[in-house]
Design a protein that fits this description.
mainly beta, 7-stranded antiparallel beta sheet, globular
């Protein structure tokens, strides 16, 4: 189940959940994800928070800058708060070309 709502022309919030993973029907991770994005000019900024039934939580922030109709650059950061184990911090950056 998912839902998203446009707060303004530039701002969107959303929620997603699912009862199980599609490829492992016996598992029920039950993630709940909350997201928000806001566009300023050609750049979209996004934040998100997700937590699965086990208690592991994910916090993400990112931005995407459009450089034309088919080309953009992006950067993102994710913090993972693991209930038992080592928390992680991940970063990604890249370019995206659509055709």
């Amino acid at each position: 189940m998912c839902a998203s709502f446009d707060i303004t022309d530039a701002t969107t919030i959303g929620y997603t959940t699912q009862s199980r993973q599609w490829n492992q029907p016996t598992l029920t991770p039950r993630p709940n994800e909350y997201v928000a994005s806001h566009t300023v000019g050609d750049t979209t900024f996004s934040v998100g928070y997700g937590k699965v039934k086990s208690g592991t939580a994910y916090t993400t922030v990112g931005a995407e800058k459009k450089l034309g109709d088919n080309f953009s650059m992006y950067a993102g950061y994710e913090m993972t708060d693991v209930v038992s184990g080592t928390d992680t911090n991940d970063m990604a950056a890249g370019i995206k070309f659509t055709f």
